[in-house]
Amino acid sequence: MAHRWSLRSPSPEVTSCGGPLTLFVLQKALFLIVAVLQGRALADILFRWDATHFLRIAEDGYSLPSPARPNSNLAMFPLLPMLTRTLAAITPLNPPQSLIVIAWSGTLLAALGIFVFVRELTDGRVATIAVLLWGAAPHSFVQLLGYTEGAFTATVAWSLWALRRERWLLAGMIAGLGALLRSTGALLAITLAVYAVGLWLLSRRRAIGETSDSRPGWRELLRRLACTTLPGGLALAAVLLHVALRLGSLTGYFDVQRAWGTTLGSPLGTWREIAPYWSSTDPTMTPYTRDIGVILLVALVLVIALIGWGGSSRERWPMTFFTVGLYALTVCTLGYPQSKARFLLPGFGMWVPIAVALARLPTLVIALVIAGATAWSVHVDSGLAVGPWSP
């Protein structure tokens, strides 16, 4: 018989999600206030860079590459602009307002999902700290822009939550939404599938010597794999097929990515992209790219800590697998090195071991650490948000 996770009854002080979400909202509001005080209009902060591409898709649809626009918006995945167009059609909101409502809703769902999922792995104190660390992560200001990072992180957190309950189809359907938001939705689907296989093998191994009826059979494995992989696989295939048909090439999506300067490489290639900026004196570019090397090194330490904390625990393993895979993809993808910090945002698991360690400290110390991290994040990110380069 398949193992079912027991649900612990949380203590009253950690039952409500209102407190952590309120703190998270205050954290994000502080960023907006500081950014606006630096002289840019709120709309100018929220609707820049990738947000303009999503808006254009929502309003006019996808466009083919042209001499005037060689960087086609076919590189953008469809769910965010599709939801934006739908909301604008059924409400009085215009497309820009709809985009922000969808993006902010996704970010709130992400914070809630992180809290609920981490709370079940640990407790409410750790979960609250993890949410606030995620909110203070480098380049976390994109959680408020018309970007997909917030919504995609929500699909990661909630699909892992469903996976923990062995609700295979629900986990797969949520991962399918993730595959319509970002290409890394494929990694999420792989995470679900690998865990399904691993749990099936473990159940078979534990059932050795018992009757065959008590062991999960091949049909059960195929059912789990279908539930976890088909939604994400079909969603990703639909995106790739759409681009292929529009461009008349089976490699159309990858051609579009190459036109943007994005290719799959290696960590050494990423280092070669970053290295020239370490000695750069360009005040507009230096903080965007030079500091990414530091961020990637710190993230590597956090990922190693996560492996040590969660690698040996079955219930923590899917989060660890996804986070490690996300980090590997990030450091092996070439192009736009200044964007690597935001690419790591869906890997919220890297903050959990730090949250576990902080939770052992007195509440006042925790508050001071979170306040310091938030102040640093707001200071750095507000400068990036009003700067000339895409995060």
Please, what is the oligomeric state? Answer: single chain
Average residue-wise pLDDT: 90
For the secondary structure, the number of strands is 2
Largest sheet: 2 strands, antiparallel
Number of helices: 18
Note the gap between the termini: 48 Å
Class inferred from helices and paired strands: mainly alpha
SSE order = HHHHHHHHHHHHEHHHEHHH
Basic shape: globular
Which stretches of 5+ consecutive residues score pLDDT under 50? 1-15
Summarize the structure.
This protein is mainly alpha-helical.
List the helices and strands and how they pair.
Layout: H1 12-15, H2 18-37, H3 42-46, H4 50-60, H5 79-90, H6 95-121, H7 124-135, H8 149-164, H9 168-179, H10 185-206, H11 218-247, H12 252-260, E1 263-264, H13 267-278, H14 286-310, H15 317-332, E2 333-334, H16 340-343, H17 352-359, H18 363-385
Antiparallel strand pairs: 1-2
Helix pairs in contact: 2-6, 2-7, 2-18, 4-5, 5-6, 6-7, 6-8, 7-17, 7-18, 8-9, 9-10, 9-11, 10-11, 10-15, 13-14, 14-15
Throw out a few tags for this protein:
mainly alpha; 1% strand; two-stranded antiparallel ribbon; 391 residues; globular
What does this structure look like?
The chain contains 18 helices and two strands. It is an all-alpha fold. It has a two-stranded antiparallel sheet with strand order 1-2. Residues 1-15 have low confidence and may be disordered.
